[in-house]
Specification:
Layout (H helix, E strand, L loop, with lengths): L4 E6 L5 H13 L6 H4 L9 H8 L10 H15 L6 E4 L5 E2 L2 E2 L6 E8 L2 H12 L3 H8 L6 E2 L4 E2 L2 H9 L6 E5 H6 L1 H16 L5 H10 L2 H10 L25 H10 L1 H6 L4
Parallel strand pairs: 1-2, 1-5, 5-8
Antiparallel strand pairs: 3-4, 6-7
Helix pairs in contact: 1-10, 5-6, 9-10
Length: 272
């Protein structure tokens, strides 16, 4: 029987990294690695090195179309990897691009979707990318198919959320970043209970508490000063981790447009 992938899916800067830190601490901490080493146990799917390894060839990043190869790479991963090696982060939307599917139920066992208040996502993503909020805002609400980069395609926040929500024929769980921050133990326990059904491990409350303590924001900031986080662009990946900072950065017009454009989804998620 073919093993299948467990996706940790989200829009960028929505809490995917925090959840991965918690999960890798719980699932792999016997190896006594620090948090930034542990998180590599749940890698990003859209990585040049991963595709090169599976396709057995060097990739020219300028003209490589990752989406055309996505399903083939997933098929090969499912053939070769154990269930614990088939947990991947992705920021890709669920759906097709240029007639090519990103993934399907054939290769997907389960997915966790992490969603965050879009007003907060916009501010965090702009800081992370080193661009102005104004420039990021234009992409954020763009109704075109997406802004395709080498190994990632960025689309509107609501399109992204609705795409994964529409993936109905596999088991899934949707969690809010705000709940993960406010009720970390409760939400992490909920996620682990679902993963335990697939990966066949027992739930240990002490390990959950340790994972949370090891990933307190102050500890991550301290570790980032000591050891560069490999996923950081500007040496300040763990910028705030707080809620509602958007009130200090967005203009009244930007807030009004976001709340109008994403009104139904924000109401559905109790952001409005």
């Amino acid at each position: 029987m073919l093993n299948k992938i467990i996706w940790l899916a989200s829009y960028p800067k929505s809490g995917n990294t925090f959840l991965r830190l918690l999960l890798t601490n719980y699932l792999f901490n016997e190896e006594n690695l620090n948090q930034f080493e542990l998180i590599r146990k749940i890698p990003k799917f859209e990585k040049k090195e991963l595709f090169e390894n599976i396709l057995k060839k060097k990739i020219n990043s300028e003209n490589f179309d990752y989406i055309k190869n996505s399903l083939f790479v997933q098929e090969e991963l499912c053939k070769k990897f154990s269930p614990y090696e088939l947990i991947f982060k992705t920021h890709h939307f669920y759906g097709s691009l240029d007639g090519n599917k990103f993934t399907s139920s054939q290769y997907t066992n389960f997915f966790i979707y992490i969603v965050r208040d879009p007003r907060e996502v916009l501010v965090s993503y702009a800081h992370h990318s080193g661009i102005t909020i104004k420039d990021c805002f234009e992409v954020f609400i763009d109704k075109s198919l997406g802004h395709k980069k080498i190994f990632e395609t960025i689309i509107r926040w609501d399109y992204h959320y609705k795409s994964w929500r529409s993936f109905k024929n596999v088991p899934s769980i949707i969690i809010k970043y705000e709940d993960l921050i406010d009720n970390t133990e409760k939400v992490l326990s909920k996620v682990l209970k679902e993963l335990a059904k697939i990966l066949n491990f027992s739930i240990n409350s002490q390990k959950i508490k340790k994972a949370i303590k090891d990933n307190e924001f102050s500890a991550l900031k301290k570790l980032e000063k000591k050891s560069k986080f490999h996923e950081s662009i500007n040496d300040n990946f763990f910028r705030s981790g707080k809620k509602d900072t958007w009130k200090d950065f967005l203009t009244k017009d930007q807030i009004k447009i976001i709340e109008k454009e994403f009104n139904s989804e924000m109401k559905e998620l109790n952001y409005l």
